[in-house]
Amino acid sequence: MRISSIAKSIVAGLAAGATAAVTAVQDGILDTGEGVTIALAMLGAWGITFAVPNRQKPGA
């Protein structure tokens, strides 16, 4: 199976954002600081995951 870098980074960003969102809404209130944290978690995961290259198959 071949997964592109874009697809890999989108999934990582959504997972990071969902994790931050679940933690943020534990108290029942979502304020601006928590929203910024969610956005930064998603952007950070997108950028870092996109920058790391996929492993090449041996002999390729």
Low-confidence stretches: none
Share of helical residues = 55-70%
Shape: elongated
Structural class: mainly alpha
Overall pLDDT score: 88
> How would you characterize the largest beta sheet?
none
**Structural Rg:** 15 Å
Number of helices: 2
Q: Give the ordered list of helices and strands.
A: HH
Summarize the structure in words:
The model has no long low-confidence stretch (mean pLDDT 88). The protein has helices at 5-24, 32-51. It has 2 helices and no strands. Helix 1 (5-24) packs antiparallel against helix 2 (32-51). It is 67% helix and 0% strand. It is elongated, with a radius of gyration of 15 Å. With 60 residues, it is mostly helical.
Features:
60 residues; mainly alpha; 0% strand
Please describe the topology of this protein:
Elements: H1 5-24, H2 32-51
Short description:
The protein has 60 residues and is mainly α. The chain has two helices and no strands.
